[in-house]
């Protein structure tokens, strides 16, 4: 049985949108989606957008990120750092915790300078960062926090949804997410002042200052409305299916599952662990070969979903997009004449991430049928026994 399902309701919503597509009433379906989301996410403002990246972009614009400004981001996924560079800001990479794989609050605090204007924390794979500590640090330094919740729809910490802890939260409806509309997402703004300042204008309206057309297309909103009522069920299903993998590696000393904080409830967009086989004389490539022989064909080595193809897996600051940014002239953003700091993206700046990324071993849950996940989990268990 597939994790996701579609019915005639999606087609009915599409027809309704198509019937109004030549009229201003076509925007009402977007407003309806915002109302639906707001029932679960009681934020100051909800904006339906074209992508999670669009949501991050709007949040950074609202904060006022520009040339010479620093934003602290995580070193495992590229998106936060890219969003900062779109604004000619400088990404500053905080290290991660080896166990949770999420940004380490102590590392975040150590990276704060007078130029720090925001923090973006990614809730990696569906398990939330330690928001209590991060928000304490942010408030002490008067720095806004943006949660990247692309993996974390309906994930929780202390019984409170991801996206309701920071000042902003960006969500994704990408094709691999638990609520999937192909593209799309939404931005939640939890700060009243930022909600009033957010300069999001629908296409065709003249804004007070320059901005971008990141509005969600009505056809995407129509599908999202029909899918939203099933989203919690999808997330719960992934949470349950992740237990099959956890059971498969139980007792294995060289596969260490991503630690979920006791106060967290993970949405498990991705199930992940750290491969430590080299400490036990087990070669990673050989492990992957045997894994496939045992029918577990959907596991991804060395964090390939967000790595740079053709390059060795590493923290993202080692990739050309950050090492040799080519988007702007005059050396911007990282060698911008307005920037008074010094960028150091060399090895050693995030030692935990540099250890972790080449050893990551993971698999997406939500697009796969239950029966296949059972087969993959059994194949993983057989593979562990092969090397034991």
Task: Explain this structure.
The protein has 388 residues and is of the alpha/beta class. The chain has a domain at 8-228: 3-Layer(aba) Sandwich (Aspartate Aminotransferase, domain 2). It contains twelve helices and 14 strands. A seven-stranded mixed β-sheet has the order 1-9-8-5-4-2-3, with helices on both faces. Strands 10-12-14-13 form a four-stranded antiparallel β-sheet, with helices on one face. Strands 7-6-11 form a three-stranded antiparallel β-sheet, with no helix packed on it. β2 (70-73), α4 (79-86) and β3 (90-93) form a beta-alpha-beta unit. The mean pLDDT is 90.
The profile of the biggest β sheet is: 7 strands, mixed
Tertiary shape: globular
Rg is: 21 Å
User: DSSP strand (E) fraction?
Assistant: 5-15%
CATH class type of the domain at 8-228: Alpha Beta
What CATH architecture label of the domain at 8-228 applies?
3-Layer(aba) Sandwich
Mean of residue pLDDT values = 90
Helix content: 25-40%
Unreliable sequence segments: none
Count of individual helical segments: 12
Output the structural class: alpha/beta
First-to-last CA distance: 33 Å
The fold-level CATH name of the domain at 8-228 is: Aspartate Aminotransferase, domain 2
Strands of the largest sheet, in order across it?
A: 1-9-8-5-4-2-3
């Amino acid at each position: 049985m597939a994790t996701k399902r579609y019915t005639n309701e999606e087609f009915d919503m599409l027809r309704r949108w198509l019937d109004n597509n030549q009229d201003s009433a076509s925007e009402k379906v977007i407003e309806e989606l915002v109302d639906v989301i707001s029932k679960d996410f009681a934020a100051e403002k909800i904006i339906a957008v074209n992508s999670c990246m669009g949501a991050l972009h709007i949040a950074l614009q609202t904060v006022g990120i520009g040339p010479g400004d620093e934003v602290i981001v995580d070193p495992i996924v590229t998106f936060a750092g890219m969003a900062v560079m779109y604004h000619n800001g400088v990404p500053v990479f905080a290290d991660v915790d080896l166990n949770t794989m999420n940004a380490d609050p102590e590392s975040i605090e150590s990276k704060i300078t007078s130029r720090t204007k925001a923090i973006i924390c990614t809730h990696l794979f569906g398990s939330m960062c330690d928001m209590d500590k991060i928000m304490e640090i942010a408030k002490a330094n008067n720095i806004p926090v943006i949660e990247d919740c692309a993996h974390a729809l309906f994930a929780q910490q202390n019984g409170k949804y991801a996206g309701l802890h920071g000042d902003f939260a960006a969500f994704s409806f990408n094709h691999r997410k638990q609520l999937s509309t192909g593209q799309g997402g939404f931005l939640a703004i939890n700060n009243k002042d930022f909600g009033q300042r957010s300069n999001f204008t629908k296409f065709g309206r003249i804004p007070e200052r320059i901005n971008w057309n990141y509005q969600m297309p009505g056809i995407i909103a129509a599908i999202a409305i029909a899918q939203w009522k099933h989203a919690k069920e999808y997330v719960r299903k992934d949470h349950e299916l992740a237990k099959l993998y956890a059971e498969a590696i139980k007792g294995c000393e060289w596969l260490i599952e991503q630690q979920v904080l006791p106060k967290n409830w993970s949405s498990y967009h991705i199930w992940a662990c750290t491969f430590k086989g080299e400490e036990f004389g087990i070669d990673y490539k050989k492990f992957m070969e045997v894994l496939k022989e045992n029918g577990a064909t959907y596991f991804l080595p060395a964090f390939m979903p967000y790595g740079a193809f053709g390059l060795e897996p590493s923290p993202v600051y080692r990739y050309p997009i950050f090492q040799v940014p080519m988007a702007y002239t005059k050396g911007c953003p990282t060698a911008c004449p307005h920037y008074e700091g010094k960028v150091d993206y060399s090895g050693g700046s995030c030692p935990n991430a540099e250890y972790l990324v080449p050893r990551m071993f993971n698999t997406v849950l939500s697009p796969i049928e239950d029966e296949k996940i059972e087969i993959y989990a059994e194949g993983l268990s057989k593979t562990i026994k092969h090397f034991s």
